[in-house]
Design a protein that fits this description.
The chain has one helix at residues 27-50; strands at 2-8, 15-21. The chain is an alpha+beta fold.
Length: 67
């Protein structure tokens, strides 16, 4: 059984993630699953935080507003 939770501070989109696993053959399987889920969630929220109100990701180098 493996579990983890935390506050993740993605750009302009902090979020809370809780992952719980059970019935594992190896504890490492749970650690890997938690790692993959956390990475996928961070990538999604990081992309959303950098997106414009229309959903398009604006690169700082192409933006007139350097915020």
């Amino acid at each position: 059984m493996r579990n983890d939770s935390g506050i993740i501070y993605a750009t302009d989109r902090p979020f809370i993630l809780c992952v719980m696993t059970t019935y594992l053959e190896r504890e490492r399987d749970g650690e890997e699953a938690i790692s993959h889920i956390a990475r996928a969630a961070w990538e999604m929220f990081e992309r959303l935080g950098r997106a414009s109100e229309y959903g398009r990701v604006i690169s700082p180098s192409n933006s007139a507003n350097p915020n």
